[in-house]
Amino acid sequence: MRSGVALKRSVLRKSGKLIPLYPTFFLVVFFLVPFTVMLAVSFFHRVEGAFFEPAFEFDNYLRFFDPFYLGILQFSILLSMAAAVLATAIAFPFTYMITRMSRKAQVVALVLLLAVLSLSEVIIGFSWSTLLSRTSGISNLFVSLGLLEKPTSYYPSLSAVLIGLVYLSVPYAVLVLYPPLSRLDPELPEAARMMGASPMRTFFTIVIPLLRRPIMSTLILVFVFTLGAYTLPQTLGKPSSWTLSVHITDQAIFQANLPFAAAMAIFLLVVTLAMIAVTSMLDKTKSEGDTK
Amino acid sequence: MKLLRNLFVTMIFVFMAAPFVVVAGVSFNERKRLIFPPEGFSLSWYGALWTEADWFNAMQNSLVIALLSSLLAVSLALPIALYLWQRGNVLAKALFSLGLAPFMLPPVITALGLLIFWVTIGGSGQLYATVISHGVFLVTLPLVTISLGLQTINVQFLEAARVMGATERTVFRTVSLPLVFPYIVSGFAFAFVLSLNEYIIAYMVAGFTVETLPIKILNSLRYGYTPTMGAVAVLFALTSVLVFSLIARFGDLPRLLGAPARDAE
Amino acid sequence: MEFDSVRAIDNIDLVLPQGQFVCLLGPSGCGKTTLLRMIAGLNTPTSGEIIFDGEPLTDVPSHERNFGMVFQSLALFPHLTIAENIGYPLRIRGFSKRKIAARVDELLELVHMPGVGNRQISQLSGGQRQRIAIARALAIDPKLFLLDEPLSALDAKLREAMQIELKELQRKLGVTTIVVTHDQREAMTMADHVVIMKDGQIFQQGPPLEVYKKPNTAFVADFIGSTNLMPCRILSSDTVETYGTEVKVAHLAASLKPNDQAALSVRPEDLSLIPKEDAPESMRAKITFSVDLGTHTELQLDHGGQDIMVTIPPQRQQVFAQGEIWGLQIADNACAAVSL
To answer: What is chain B's percent helix, strand, coil content, to nearest 5?
Structure first.
């Protein structure tokens, strides 16, 4: 196998000797540089009326450590964790069922999931607010079923935000879980069935334990994904359910305090990178386990 | 058991579809009210996209940005993917990771970085700034699809072509490129749909002057709901379904998303 | 004698004898794995029924059939130890820890791997994994023991050793066993009863040697061992005519009647070479290839455009040179007339 790879490289190496300068230029200038500038600005001094002036101070970071912002951070993390757990709990059995269907049925399911996943948060927020509204929402259905006296509005509320986030992340979680689940050898659950395990028992004693690492990675990735949600807490929630992402935008655009927004963004970045590092460590231990 | 399974799968799809059923219903209302089930039936709100200047302008902006930025994303992704495939060295891997990074981070961080960047060098509020920002942000998608495509090329194809007398250039043009082309197209389509729907970066970079459809919707939401928003939401959902159906029609969607290659049977 | 009858769908009507070692044999895509999976309950027949021990089995889910199965990929659970793998079906049935441990030790003994219970699956070689998968399938004393191409991942030498071991194990336990394989040598080694399948249909079944000696169709004759198929015409119940010569046959396919056009299956060892002057014109052939394998000599001849294989035993030390013309002689009472 190793010699095969070496052979492949030697054949390919003869072609393409140029370092792709043009994409390197773009990624460095329009991705790395902005992050560096943002890091610098997070230490700058804010000037009322203008944007900022160069300085090196920790005021922006220190400001973050007051009960108000720490409360927001705690709320954002708890909200994202709840969304991650719910979305994964729904997505895992769902993905497992999809991967056991025919290839054709899988394609249909994937097209619909991708369509929902790619939809703008704005559109999802608008659609859910319509569905939860008094005039055209689901409460009208409950009324006509006799479950409710008169239609009511279910938003803005914390549960509406949570529903929206779960809605947003289920397709994402499905797509993260799809590769490992579709690569699961179907003979493993079949073997459990032959040995007397019911479908439920097979799912809990074989399928879930076999995929515990992908499940952990999914939890973390969905957590990061929902941490970045920005419009849903605004369209479906009260100001009390605004997340860190909303406050970053608020500071940047409406308070024109770019240094403070930058400091919060850097903080969010550090949390995210730590999570990604944990995920890739999980992946690494997994692949080591495989090669043994 | 099978019944239980089908019930669960159906329930999830109902959950996925529910908001759009209501929004589609709302968009057919005759009067300017959000009522479901709709009162009367009218397609006039779909017409508003063409007749009302600010909606039409937003649609135009969205389409121009999506088209240009996804072309930019593909043009950035292709050389990186090829370089990684051909060399596989540390530099190639670093470039590849850099290309993946924009998508791993919460977009609000990237958006703020780009806002500060464009404010600093000038260009904030310009269409080209949004195009470049989207192009760089969305490079991940074509990068992943093209890399996947290149991995499916059997190196012996290239060797066979060389042995039969083709030059490197000819091998690329006659063997590698045709084989990887469907993956380039799907990468483009993925990027296109995501650019259409992207809000936060477009908003931060140029939101006040270059209104895209998502920005326009959110701005209008502050002044109350109109069935036009429903119409836009429906059109967006349909566009996504259409684009991904096309990808599925011309490519192997499960394979693109990480399933093992189709069995030979 | 008692019979477990196993009936499966469509054109397949199969009754399998109890306590025997049965091989489902056929080229890939012939439906043998599907048939096995239907017996296991992993595939559902669209029509027809499966009867086991006089009870209809069709609506019994896999996990209530109490069968043991070894899968092609072995399907050993990587997240469990060897002992936990073997003990899995016992744990499902609520056995006590002590009982499970005792039974696992017993099974490890049975497959000649005592004392490895605490190791991980990943620490085992291919042949060892094979044994663990077999032990796991036998843990509950299954009513039926199913194996789907169980030895296909092993190299040739190990595969032959495992075939003998598996056969001995089955004889010792007396469990009715069904193995799917595409390797006719494997089937000949292990089976008491072979079932030859092609295109979802059963072509012939019976004890392996009987199928080898008395094939009914050209496909079966060619699939089991190697053979030369010569066009022939049936003369009587034990005589056929081929290339103008009369040959007494050992077997005539039941469907054949006098004057039918058929094929004569002549095994390479049932052909001998005689000086060309002693053979009629129509039975002369030119040697195109010859190889001495020590144990015997294999020859390939051109007989009027058709390739003919002949095996010569070593005692006839004679040089057969390429390009020579020899006469072909078919042994009487050895060959089978088969339908095309």
So the answer is: 75, 0, 25
Classify residue A66: in a domain, yes or no.
no
Q: Is A16 within the bounds of a domain?
A: no
Nearest CB to A178: which of B16, B107, B259? B259
Closest approach of A65 to chain B, Cα-based (Å): 19
A67–chain B nearest CA distance, Å: 23
Q: Residue C142 — left, alpha, or beta (φ > 0 → left; ψ -120 to 50 → alpha)?
A: beta
- Per-residue 3-state assignment (H helix, E strand, C coil) for chain B: CHHHHHHHHHHHHHHHHHHHHHHHHHHCCCCCCCCCCCCCCCCHHHHHHHHCHHHHHHHHHHHHHHHHHHHHHHHHHHHHHHHHHHCCCHHHHHHHHHHHHHHHCCHHHHHHHHHHHHHHHCCCCCHHHHHHHHHHHCCHHHHHHHHHHHHCCCHHHHHHHHHCCCCHHHHHHHHHHHHHHHHHHHHHHHHHHHHHHCCHHHHHHHCCCCCCHHHHHHHHHCCCCCHHHHHHHHHHHHHHHHHHHHHHHHCCHHHHCCCCCCCCC
Cβ separation of A197 and C92 shorter than 8 Å?
yes
Whether B109 and A126 lie within 8 Å, measured CB to CB: no
- At C129, the amino acid letter reads R
Q: Could you give the strand order of the β-sheet that contains C201-206, starting from the edge strand earlier in sequence?
A: C68-70, C145-148, C177-181, C21-25, C193-198, C201-206
- State which amino acid sits at residue B184: I
Range of the domain at A102: 74-256
Contact across the interface for B107 and A228, Cβ inside 8 Å: yes
Question: CA–CA separation, A188 vs B148, rounded Å?
Answer: 27
Domains: count for chain A: 1
Classified by CATH at the fold level, domain B53-256 comes out as MetI-like fold (1.10.3720)
Within a domain: A99:
yes
- Each residue's pLDDT expressed in tens, for chain A with a length of 292 residues: 344 444 455 555 555 556 688 888 998 889 899 988 888 888 888 776 666 777 777 778 888 888 888 889 889 989 999 999 999 999 999 999 999 888 888 999 999 888 888 888 888 888 888 888 877 777 777 887 777 777 778 878 888 999 999 998 999 899 889 989 988 999 999 999 999 999 899 999 999 999 988 898 889 888 888 888 888 898 888 888 888 888 998 888 888 888 899 999 998 888 888 887 887 787 666 544 443 3
CATH at residue A239: 1.10.3720.10
Q: Inter-chain contact B23–A268, Cβ cutoff 8 Å?
A: no
Report chain C's C-alpha Rg in angstroms. Answer: 24
Mutation for C interface: A190, A194, A291, most C CBs within 10 A: A194
Query: From CA B189, how far away is CA B66, in angstroms rounded?
Result: 10
Indicate yes or no: CB of A31 within 8 angstroms of CB of B132: no
CA-closest candidate to residue B130, choices B68, B45, B59, B38: B68
Residue spans per domain, chain B: 1-42, 53-256
Q: CB-based contact (8 Å) between A107 and chain B? A: yes
Is C62 close to A289, i.e. CB distance below 8 A?
A: no
**A 175-214 residues with CB below 8 A of B?**
175, 178-179, 182-183, 199
Residue A110 lies in a domain: yes
